Amino acid sequence: MINFKTGKLIQGSDRNGYKRFQYKDHVYSIHRLVYETFNGPIPDGMKIDHIDGDRSNNALSNLRLVTQSDNMKAAMENGHSGQIPVLQFDRQGNFIQEFPTIQAAADFIGVTHAAVRSAIVRNGTCGGYKWKKKS
């Protein structure tokens, strides 16, 4: 992307393979900006999928509108490193079961992805369980 005021290339950053940049107090994902520039706003509940599985390939021809479910299926099929199994434990630390993704765990106990992820990051609980990423 080019900063039109300075004429300089905006380098941006990389997060889990996604290219993004910050402007003022907001972080923008390049793939979403490209899609919306040519196709209009992304409807609520819909996601933008990289058809070839390469998160850095933000060519318009490589982007498609999908449901969250279809996006997760494509991510698992492409073997993205972001799909890390998570382990569920009771409050005493006894192992209960393993889930292939944070989203699968969240769906199983009826909470959001963010809630389970937060419990993992802060070494806390969510839905009455402790959660850890599988190493």
Explained architecture:
Strand 2 and strand 3 form a beta hairpin. The termini are far apart. The chain has two domains: 65 residues, Homing Intron 3 (I-Ppo) Encoded Endonuclease, Chain A (Alpha-Beta Complex), CATH 3.90.75; 48 residues, no CATH class. Strands 7-6-9-8 form a four-stranded antiparallel beta sheet. Strands 1-2-3 form a three-stranded antiparallel beta sheet. A two-stranded antiparallel ribbon has the order 4-5. The radius of gyration is 18 Å and the shape is elongated. It is of the alpha+beta class.
Topology:
Elements: E1 13-15, E2 18-23, E3 26-29, H1 30-39, E4 46-50, E5 63-67, H2 68-77, E6 86-89, E7 95-99, H3 102-109, H4 113-122, E8 125-126, E9 129-133
Antiparallel strand pairs: 1-2, 2-3, 4-5, 6-7, 6-9, 8-9
Helix pairs in contact: 3-4
User: In order across it, which strands form the biggest sheet?
Assistant: 7-6-9-8
| Low-confidence spans | none
Assign the CATH architecture of the largest domain. Answer: Alpha-Beta Complex
CATH class of the largest domain: Alpha Beta
Measured between the Cα atoms of the first and last residue, the distance is 36 Å
Mean pLDDT: 85
Structural class: alpha+beta
Percent strand equals: 25-35%
Order of helices and strands: EEEHEEHEEHHEE
Q: What kind of sheet is the major sheet?
A: 4 strands, antiparallel
- Give a count of the beta strands, DSSP E runs of length 2 or more: 9
The number of distinct helices, counting runs of at least 4 residues, comes to 4
User: If you consult CATH, what is the topology of the largest domain?
Assistant: Homing Intron 3 (I-Ppo) Encoded Endonuclease, Chain A
> What's the domain count?
2
The helicity comes to 25-40%
